[in-house]
Structure formats: structure tokens, C-alpha cells
């Protein structure tokens, strides 16, 4: 018998489970009679994602010993006893990390339209070593988009948060231009004017991109190609524009573990300081203009 099988202490029950398990929704009893309907209707995308995160955060060791079997330096010692240490340090550094919140657009809750993606998904597409080998495409049909819209769906945030999100997306737009000849790109954001003021002359170096100061209202699929029709309010009136691919800007925010650690340590965290300084335009030798955001 392996040593890990003798050590029941490695299968630990935790009392601080982050969230309870979600209950599987079911159709009412009266609807189950005389038919073959599936009783369990399944989780929504939002609940399924929350369940996956909850499962991965349980921190429970099942005693499978795969770590022990794969650890060639034999650094895993099942005989080691738990100990508490008090350390005195001069400074504590909280590494920032970053999460990016998605604010869904009306008409596309849960990203149900396949040709509506996030800037994080576009980043993966743009990576030459990524799953699509640097190819930007429409998830609906695999076609190369000729007209791409970037939409900011969140508001009421710190200026640095807003600028970080927009700089991140403008950088993606520049890279997309290098990969797709003649692509049309537009930005719709309620903070474009403020963003332009912060960016200064840097945005003047970005050509072929339209910046619209507007409030995003709704998205809908149109036509056989399932293009995305975006409705937004600008200059006091409702306007509509259709895109092959619509990209939702995500909102940078601190991970809960950083905020929790700061609270335990009695440290006041300056939220905006984690975002660094506003982005700046830099010239490169061969690839032209690249927008760099210091994060």
C-alpha cells in the first residue's frame, strides 16, 4: 500500500468553502407526465462558469498522489507535519495580477451571438502562437471580418481603468490592421472624448480607425451571415451600424485575493495604481506604430 493511502489527513474538509453548489434546475413535476422531456434543464452559461470556478477553488486534495509520482526531485513529503510560522518582514509586496470583467450588452446576454466576442478572445486570435495561429475570424462561419466594431459597455469607472481598457483595445485594433488588409474598425464608447484628451497626440498616429463618442444600447443578429447590428446613442439621437465582428471591451479590476490580502494586512490599496501609467505610442523599426500600455 502506498504511503499516501495511509494518510487520511491529506483528504481535508474545509469550512470556508467560497460558495455552495448550484442546484440543477428541473421542469415542474406536472410537465413530466406522458412525455420524454429531459427533467434537468441544465445550467445557464453564467451559472456553469460560476460552478467551474467554485470547483477549481475547493483546494481539496483527493490523495491521488499524481503530484508525488511526477515530482522527480522528491520534494513532496507525505510525512511532513503542519506547522505555523511567524515571519517578520520589512515590506509586503502584493503582485497586482488583473481580472477583466465582462458587462454584457442588451440583446446579447451571455454572448449568445457568436459574432460578438471579447477583447480577451481577440487577443488569443491575434497571437501567432495561439489556437488560431494569429488568424482573426468570425466564430459563426470562420470568415475573415472586413468590418470590426469595438464597444465599451461599462461606465462609471476610474479614469485609469477606462484608459487601460481602451488602450488595450486600440492596441488590438492596430494589430488587426496589420493582419487584415483594408479592414474597417470603429470604437463606440461613452468616454471617447475623455480618452482622447488623456491620450493626447498619441491617437493621431492611429489611422484608419473611427472613434465614436456614444452610449451602447443593444446588439442583434441580422441577415443570413448573422452580422451584428449595434445600436447606440450619439449626438442626442439613436444610431445603428452593422459589423462583421463586434468586440466587447472588458473592464480591468483587482482580483478578490489581492483586496482580501490587503484587508488582512491593514494595507490601503490604491486601485488605480495597479493599472500603471497611461499608454504611450512608440515607434518600432519594422512594424510601425504600436500602442504600449504599462500594466
Strand neighbour order, sheet with most strands: 2-9-3-4-5
**C-alpha Rg, in Å?**
24 Å
Q: Distance between termini?
A: 50 Å
Total helices: the number is 7
Question: How many distinct domains?
Answer: 2
Q: Describe the biggest sheet?
A: 5 strands, parallel
Shape: globular
The CATH C-level name of the largest domain is: Alpha Beta
Strand content: 15-25%
- Low-pLDDT regions: 1-10, 277-295
What's the CATH H-level homologous superfamily of the largest domain? FAD/NAD(P)-binding domain
Can you tell me the CATH topology of the largest domain? FAD/NAD(P)-binding domain
Mean pLDDT: 79
How would you explain this protein's 3D organization?
There is one protein chain. The protein has two domains: about 70 residues, no CATH class; about 190 residues, 3-Layer(bba) Sandwich (FAD/NAD(P)-binding domain). The chain is α/β, with parallel strands linked by helices and about 300 residues long. The strands form four sheets. The protein has a five-stranded parallel sheet. Strands 6-7-8 form a three-stranded antiparallel sheet, with no helix packed on it. It has a two-stranded antiparallel sheet with strand order 1-10. The longest helix has 21 residues. The radius of gyration is 24 Å and the shape is globular. Strand 4, helix 6 and strand 5 form a beta-alpha-beta unit. The N terminus and C terminus are likely disordered. The termini are far apart. It is built from seven helices and twelve strands. Helices cover about 25% and strands about 20% of the residues.
Amino acid at each position: 500500500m502506498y504511503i499516501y493511502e495511509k494518510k487520511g489527513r491529506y483528504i481535508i474538509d474545509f469550512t470556508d468553502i467560497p460558495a455552495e453548489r448550484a442546484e440543477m434546475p428541473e421542469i415542474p413535476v406536472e410537465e413530466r407526465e406522458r412525455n420524454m422531456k429531459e427533467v434537468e434543464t441544465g445550467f445557464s452559461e453564467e451559472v456553469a462558469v460560476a460552478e467551474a470556478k467554485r470547483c477549481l477553488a475547493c483546494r481539496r486534495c483527493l490523495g491521488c498522489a499524481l503530484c508525488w509520482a511526477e515530482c522527480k526531485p522528491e520534494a513532496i513529503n507525505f510525512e511532513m507535519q503542519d506547522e505555523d510560522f511567524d515571519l517578520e518582514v520589512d515590506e509586503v509586496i502584493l503582485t497586482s495580477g488583473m481580472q477583466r470583467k465582462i458587462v454584457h450588452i442588451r440583446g446579447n446576454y451571455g454572448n449568445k451571438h457568436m459574432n460578438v466576442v471579447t477583447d480577451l478572445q481577440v487577443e488569443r486570435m491575434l497571437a501567432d502562437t495561439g489556437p488560431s495561429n494569429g488568424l482573426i475570424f468570425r466564430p459563426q462561419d470562420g470568415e475573415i471580418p472586413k468590418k470590426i466594431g469595438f464597444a465599451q459597455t461599462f461606465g462609471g469607472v476610474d479614469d485609469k481603468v477606462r484608459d487601460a481598457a481602451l488602450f488595450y483595445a486600440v492596441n488590438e485594433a492596430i494589430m488587426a490592421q496589420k493582419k487584415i488588409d483594408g479592414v474597417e474598425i470603429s470604437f463606440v464608447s461613452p468616454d471617447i472624448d475623455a480618452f482622447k484628451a488623456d491620450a493626447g497626440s498619441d491617437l493621431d498616429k492611429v489611422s484608419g480607425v473611427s472613434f465614436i463618442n456614444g452610449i451602447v444600447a443593444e446588439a442583434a443578429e441580422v441577415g443570413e451571415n448573422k452580422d451584428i447590428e449595434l445600436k447606440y446613442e450619439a449626438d442626442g439621437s439613436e444610431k445603428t451600424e452593422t459589423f462583421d465582428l463586434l468586440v466587447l471591451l472588458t473592464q480591468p479590476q483587482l482580483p478578490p485575493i489581492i483586496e482580501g490580502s490587503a484587508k488582512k494586512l491593514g494595507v490601503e490599496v490604491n486601485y488605480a495604481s495597479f493599472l500603471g501609467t497611461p499608454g504611450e505610442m512608440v515607434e518600432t523599426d519594422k512594424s510601425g506604430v504600436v500602442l504600449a500600455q504599462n500594466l
